[in-house]
Design goal:
alpha+beta
């Protein structure tokens, strides 16, 4: 029989008749439960992501005040035993066993615990190595030379998820705007220990010291200490974030090292230093990536929203936050590529119920829908991209040369593209050879000047480099040559693919074309240099081949002269050269050795003349030496490229 239902419609019996309560979650609770969205999938990835988030915050802090960044990372391993001893917790009871031979009980329970020991008696122990994540914690401290933080705002900056200074239409390094807040959440989950922040806004100002954790239920900071300390002796400016977190470093060591190396490539104007102190001293290391350039890109500017990015909700939000008194002023001021004339045309197309002087607050949902529909039917110019801040070909070239030491390198910047209403700028470099290079194609990906190391297979840069470029056309073998492809994409909204934003999607055709075209322009430059190198190699091989015959030819010529002179010399001739050779031979000045020297000189001079003649008719895109002139303005509009035998020049419109 079916169960009886009570008066409320629920099945009878027990607590099933109770009505469900409507519950809400704070942003902090949501990201704590879904931490994989922010790159905190497991202890190893969480440790790596924590380092990355704090490093990128440090770069932003220095760049925001126009200071060349200096970032110092201190990572200290704390074993499980030492961690418990440091915090007054008793060590595990039971027989001590070696980590490599620690037997596990049923249900994954450690046999050194009481419950595990009982289970081990019932079942023969299985030999299994204890993973590092079960026994290691880490003290992480990242220090920078940025502008510091206001004393009163520090608790809210770190202790309230989805609150910060980076929201808006602007090129930003962050993916979610979480940054150090997610590190604090991971600290709370893995160790329960608070974060410590030290910050000073100038050498003459005091040091702010804050110790806090995060109340997930209220999404607010739980402040343990908030005070000012003397800065008279240190005269320090900057910030230091210290936190104790759980993690597993052995598997993610290479990702951390690669991340710092890639960061040094895309930001050669910064200095990175990392100290890792392991429980085993032999595993400790120290890394320094020295500054190579002092040409720091200008900071990105706040951008207007392009009409192509408008939908009903976005328009409603803009109208709600706008301070403009008329619809005409709102359209011409808030949206990109809409001037006063274009705004008047749009208002006229909206219908008779709209006029230029109406207040934005008069627009209800129905009118907003009509506005958005008309705007989406219109064609607008692409975003200018002047608000973006790419690394620049100069910095990209220096960074690659410093870290990778390739044999050849070429760089290119594509024209600004529009993707989902946002400006997107693509910079690329292609290198050949290098001290760390492997055979085949290695793709280095950057989004808003931060490296992307995970999920490369679905990325637009990876697919383009491996599937859309015909490398043989450029005299490159993608299987055996050591080809490095560097793609840096900057935008006010990076078109990521997937929820955790580990790669850039491959769906947009204009972005595909921009990446492919930029890579191919780099390949054209390298092809010309490869052709020149091949010609020089052939010239060298030809010289070597001819030199092998010099002894035989000189011996034959000398023998012929001797035979002629023994027969009474050459017949009388009007050729002065022949007469002079005969005269010199008779005087003993034409020997076999002298003939060899003359032949070697002739071969070198003939090859030099041939090379000079070839250079006069060489391809127009040959680049002999690269000249980099940094652009000092934020506007990057180019008319065309001029190719010559000494360089490639881009003519700016401004």
């Amino acid at each position: 029989m079916p169960p009886k239902r009570d008066a409320d419609g629920g099945a009878g019996g027990g607590g099933a008749s109770k009505k469900s309560r409507l519950m809400t979650k704070t942003a902090a609770e949501f990201f704590a439960e879904n931490k994989h969205f922010a790159g905190f999938e497991n202890p190893g990835k969480s440790l790596y992501t924590s380092i990355r988030e704090l490093v990128e915050n440090s770069l932003d802090a220095a760049e925001s005040i126009g200071v060349l960044p200096e970032v110092h990372i201190e990572l200290k391993e704390i074993s499980h035993v030492n961690y418990r001893a440091m915090h007054g917790m008793e060590a595990k009871k039971g027989k001590q066993v070696e980590p490599e031979l620690a037997p596990d009980g049923e249900d994954g329970m450690d046999a050194t615990t009481d419950g595990g020991a009982k289970a081990a008696k019932k079942k023969a122990p299985a030999v299994k190595k204890i993973s590092a994540k079960d026994q290691s914690f880490f003290k992480l401290a990242v220090t920078d030379n940025g502008g510091g933080m206001p004393h009163d705002e520090i608790p809210r900056m770190f202790g309230s998820v989805l609150s910060g200074t980076k929201y808006g239409i602007r090129q930003e390094r962050g993916k979610f705007g979480l940054g150090s807040k997610m590190v604090l959440i991971w600290s709370k989950m893995s160790t329960g220990l608070p974060m410590e922040i030290k910050s000073s806004q100038g050498s003459m100002k005091k040091i702010s010291y804050v110790k806090l954790d995060l109340d997930l239920h209220s999404n607010s900071p739980n402040v343990h200490a908030h005070e000012k300390q003397s800065n008279d002796e240190l005269k320090w400016r900057g910030s230091q974030i210290s936190v104790t977190i759980g993690g597993e470093f052995s598997k993610f060591k290479r990702y951390t090292i690669n991340y710092l190396r890639e960061m040094a490539v895309i930001t050669p104007y910064a200095r990175f230093e990392m100290h890792y102190t392991a429980e085993d001293p032999s595993k400790s290391f120290h890394i320094v990536h020295a500054r190579r350039s002092e040409n720091m890109p200008p900071p990105p500017q706040k951008a207007k929203l392009h009409p192509a990015a408008i939908d009903n909700q976005v328009m409603e939000n803009l109208l709600h936050s706008s301070n403009h008194k008329t619809l005409l002023k709102f359209l011409s001021s808030e949206l990109d590529r809409i001037d006063r004339k274009k705004a008047q045309e749009l208002i006229e197309s909206f219908g008779k119920e709209f006029n230029e002087d109406m207040h934005p607050s008069e627009l209800d949902v129905s009118k907003i829908r009509k506005m958005v529909d008309k705007i989406q039917q219109e064609e607008f110019d692409k975003p200018s991209g002047s608000e973006l801040s790419p690394a620049g070909e100069y910095n990209l070239h220096l960074g690659i040369m410093k870290e990778m030491r390739p044999d050849m390198i070429a760089t290119n910047t594509a024209d600004v593209q529009e993707v989902n209403g946002h400006p997107v700028l693509v910079e690329t470099a292609v290198s050949l050879g290098g001290r760390r290079a492997k055979e085949g194609i290695t793709v280095h990906r950057f989004a808003n000047r931060i490296p992307m190391l995970f999920q490369p297979g679905a990325d637009v840069s990876y697919k383009t480099a491996n599937q859309r470029i015909k490398w043989k056309q450029y005299r490159m073998d993608k299987l055996h040559h050591k080809i490095g492809v560097y793609v840096s994409i900057v935008s006010t909204k990076i078109p990521y693919g997937g929820p955790n934003k580990e790669y850039i999607g491959d769906e947009n055709e204009s972005l595909q074309k921009a990446v492919a075209t930029s890579i191919m322009k780099c390949c054209v430059q390298l092809k010309a240099r490869l052709m020149r190198s091949e010609a020089m190699r052939q010239q060298k091989d030809r010289q070597e081949s001819l030199r092998k015959y010099i002894p035989h030819v000189s011996r034959a010529l000398h023998g012929m002269l001797q035979a002629m002179m023994s027969d009474g010399g050459p017949r009388q001739t009007t050729n002065p050269t022949v007469n002079k050779i005969a005269q010199l031979h008779g005087q003993g000045e034409v020997t076999e050795l002298i003939l060899q020297q003359k032949l070697r000189t002739y071969i070198e001079e003939a090859d030099m003349e041939q090379a000079m003649a070839g250079a006069q008719f060489d391809e127009a895109n040959v680049v002999r030496e690269e000249i980099y002139i940094p652009i000092l303005t934020t506007t990057r509009k180019f008319e065309r490229e001029m190719h010559s035998k000494v360089g490639v020049f881009k003519l700016s419109k401004t």
